[in-house]
Amino acid sequence: MSTSGATDAVMAPEPEPPGGGEERPLLDVRNLHVEFRTREGIAKAVNGVNYSVHAGETLAVLGESGSGKSVTAQAVMGILDSPPGFITQGEVVFQGRDLLRMGGEERRKIRGARMAMIFQDALSSLNPVLSVGEQLGEMFRVHQGLSRKEARAKAIELMERVRIPAARERVKQYPHQFSGGMRQRVMIAMAMALEPELIIADEPTTALDVTVQAQVMDLLAELQREYNMGLILITHDLGVVADVADKIAVMYAGRIVESSPVHDIYRAPAHPYTRGLLDSIPRVDLKGQELYAIKGLPPNLLHIPPGCAFNPRCPRAQEVCRTDVPPLYRVNQERASACHFWKETLDDDSAPSGDA
Amino acid sequence: MGRYVIRRLLQMIPVFIGSTFLIFFMVYALGDPVAALFGDRAPDPATAQQIRHDLYLDHSLGAQYLHYMKNIFIGDFGTAFNGESVTSLMGSAFPVTIRLTIVAIIFEIIIGIALGVVTGMRRGKPVDTGVLLLTLVVISVPTFVTGYVLQYVFGVRLKWTAPSVSPSAPFNELILPGLVLALVSLAYVTRLTRTSIAENTRADYVRTAVAKGLPRHRVIIRHLLRNSLIPVVTFIGTDIGALMGGAIVTERIFNIHGVGFQLYQGILRNNAPTVVGFVTVLVLVFLLANLLVDLLYAVLDPRIRYA
């Protein structure tokens, strides 16, 4: 059983964006494969991922730790640690051009300027020994060749835009002098600096407390609308996704197992893994009961199980799941699921979810 | 910041008194300077008594120390037994050693940090292994061996430089001695930089810098190196004091009339005022260098604040 069979199937049903598919997507990731060559062996972190984002659209990439969602993003940005990480196959088409075929210098000019990334932990992702103003201003100095003074003025402007109070004074301060929420705003400001077409936010609110999470997400959504940017939101927080995303791609063991417009997936998931994720959300009305969790652990990427990677943990697993890799079945015009039993899973939803 | 500096300066007082007293005690207690003055011949008791009185040696050790310290504060470090004042010896020796130290520190900074960056970025590659091995050799071979070997090769055989340094000791003659003096520290700076760089290359902020689309040199110098240099600067700072006082071997090899040379002469001839005077100044240099390092630390790392 090789993954190539699955890959071919995956190629076909690319879910179209809502509102017709004539428009060329801003970013089109096609059949991306990434592996990490480690001493223990080759870890297949990404195994044929396809997704696309249009201008003004928000794609949420969902999955547990180690599902390959961050690695895919790093490969798109071109910041994969290499070695040990290698892109072995695939295309990353951004504004009509394959980034993987570009020279290093050309690629660098796109990074930060045309596509930018927001990282999870703003404290460790910002340079501790440079002032916030220097780090923001650097974008303008490097990409636009502005002077130190002009860059500082731009930095203050940016900080005001992300609503950091007293920006003029705080521009001289260092990251450790900011609160968690303010630091994440700085990260957002840095990503927004050159008004890129695409922003990849890698769990932007995970390190923040809940009230601040909402503020940061609102800010991000607002700026996205304002600039009509494409946004890839990597998260494992289903609550965040429901509010801001247009479509969802669920990843498991380096593959997209389900992709769907956001509301359909909450109503009726077409993959047992998605269903498991949804059932894991604690519910106020079921207080006092034991919390549901998907049994088992994500697979070791050095030894991905044969057949469907999710089969050892799947409540619905049959013999076929242990031998055949499920292709990405087209559920309808906009949805796809990599499950042999997507129909049954979908139908299940008429009955209350009670497999916990 | 100001209060911190004042507190640190005040803390220096007991350290200064303690260390100078220790040196004073050792030098004066370990031998009879008057006997040493006369060499093999036994001195005439009356003359010896006279000299003892002139040199304030007929008082108790405590009184001698107080007398000595009192003189230091009016700028009188006493007289060496050849009749020259210790201050004039210092005036000729310190500029030479300071020049030598500057040359050594420049070597440490330029070569040490450059090698550290190169090896840190290419961990496990042949360059890294090679340089690492070389540093191990340099650290394990004593300075007098490397000193004589380099002197022979570059000074005697290849004649690229004079094998010994003239009394005026201009910078160009101090390049080879400076390198010899720097070698061991240079090896440490290389290793320290390498470890620090290797540790930080995987740091999140370096990844951010790459994601911002900065050119590689800017990522390395401004983001990676800036963070990695903090421990290195500490080392180099404390090394200034060590290099100033510890150049005895190097200064002997290349016949440089600096601090190490004078100290060596002073110890050899049991010349108490010279030894105590020089060591006192070196203690001060060491304390000030340490203070400077701590202040520099706060400049390099804004997370550190002194109050």
TrEMBL record, chain A:
GO term, biological process aspect, one: peptide transport
ABC transporter domain sequence ranges: 29-278
GO molecular function: ATP binding; ATP hydrolysis activity
Membrane topology according to the record: Peripheral membrane protein
GO CC, alphabetical: plasma membrane
Listed SMART domains: AAA
Protein localization: Cell membrane
Main subcellular location of this protein, as a coarse class: membrane
Region (Disordered): 1-25
Keyword check for Hydrolase: no
Domain of life: Bacteria
Keywords: ATP-binding, Cell membrane, Membrane, Nucleotide-binding, Transport
Pfam families linked: ABC_tran, oligo_HPY
Family of the protein in this entry: Belongs to the ABC transporter superfamily.
Protein name per the record: Oligopeptide transport system ATP-binding protein
Protein source organism: Actinacidiphila guanduensis
TrEMBL record, chain B:
Domain of life: Bacteria
Principal subcellular localization: membrane
Localisation per UniProt entry: Cell membrane
Keywords, sorted A to Z: Cell membrane, Membrane, Transmembrane, Transmembrane helix, Transport
Gene Ontology biological-process entries: transmembrane transport
Gene3D superfamilies (UniProt xref): MetI-like
Membrane topology: Multi-pass membrane protein
CDD domains membership: TM_PBP2 (cd06261)
Keyword hit for Transmembrane helix: yes
Entry's Gene Ontology cellular component terms: plasma membrane
Pfam family, one: BPD_transp_1_N
Record InterPro entries: BPD_transp_1_N, MetI-like, MetI-like_sf
TM region(s), chain numbering: 12-31, 96-118, 130-154, 174-192, 228-254, 274-300
Chain ranges of the ABC transmembrane type-1 domain: 94-297
Family to which the UniProt record says this protein belongs: Belongs to the binding-protein-dependent transport system permease family.
Name used for this protein in its record: Oligopeptide transport system permease protein
Protein's organism: Actinacidiphila guanduensis
